[in-house]
Amino acid sequence: MPKDTKPKKMGRPKLPKGEAKGRIVPVRFSAYDLKRIESAAKANRKTVSEWIRGTVSAAMEATG
Question: CA 34, CA 55: separation in Å to the nearest integer?
């Protein structure tokens, strides 16, 4: 490899500014609530994140 070339970066290339998937919003749940969320997600064959996003989205649609 020539001395002046950099090795290729690993991983997914960065998205252009303003085109990220979304924002990460930290949320804290009690141990009891988290167990219930995990159970509901598992019963629906979803990850916890998918289940939370779907539940919040449905609640927003219901309230208009």
Answer: 14
- Residue 16, in any domain of the structure: no
CB 42 within 8 A of CB 31: no
The amino acid at 23: R
Interatomic CA distance for residues 36 and 17, integer angstroms: 37
Number of domains in the chain: 1
* Overall pTM > 0.85: no
Residue type for 11, please? G
> What is the residue range of 58's domain?
31-63
pLDDT tens, residue by residue, 6-42 = 778 888 888 887 777 788 899 999 999 999 999 999 9
**DSSP state letters, 18-34:** T--S---------HHHH
40 in Cβ contact with 51 (< 8 Å): yes
